[in-house]
Write a structure and sequence with these properties.
CATH architecture: Alpha-Beta Complex
CATH topology: Maf protein
Bound molecules: inosine 5'-triphosphate
Strand order of the largest sheet: 2-1-3-4-5-6-7
Amino acid sequence: MRKLILATTNPNKVYEVQSALAGLHEWQVVTQPATIPSIEETGTTFVDNAILKAVHTSRIVDDLVLADDSGLCVDALDGRPGVYSNRYAATDAERIQRLLTELRPIDEERRTAAFVCALALAQRGSVIWTGEGRVDGRIHQAPKGTHGFGYDPIFFVPEFQRTMAELTIGEKNRISHRGRALQELVRHFAGSGRL
Ligand code: ITT
């Protein structure tokens, strides 16, 4: 069995990636060791930050490393919080509150937004592959649902007519930014014969 190391400190990402890749029976998908020092996310794009995180960890461990950089881009805020989604406020509840306050004057039809996820694969300091996924939706007026994490309770998914936090893990992985980027990764593995 080969190991795929997830270069993340976010357990929700780990859960979603492990569920999405459960069909890759040759691979054991595990979180990076807690001893890996964190690296500052100095990039200005999702893919730059995903590469930073993947390469950093891959200089310390021998196995293949996968990193995810993701966030919420709100059209009425010129794409913010974007790569700063995690740094927007201290907790999920405060991040949601800040966004809802900023969007209070914005009408329903202008509350469009997208979740974006960049993935990077690296080994021994070199990038092997990058991919991106995106899902379009709308910022709901109030939080709804208890699944998922982060901004999920205020992200309304038109295809389901529910918020992301009202979707099951299977539904979220089918349509989400991360799920779509992971579907690309599976195709890459299949194409490169690494499946
Ligand atoms: P790592 O860098 O350790 O992977 P992180 O949570 O800091 O963990 P990011 O820097 O990529 O990850 O920040 C992503 C933020 O964007 C995350 O903390 C959420 O606030 C938001 N986000 C990303 N994906 C999301 C999702 O599927 N649902 C809800 N919010 C999401």
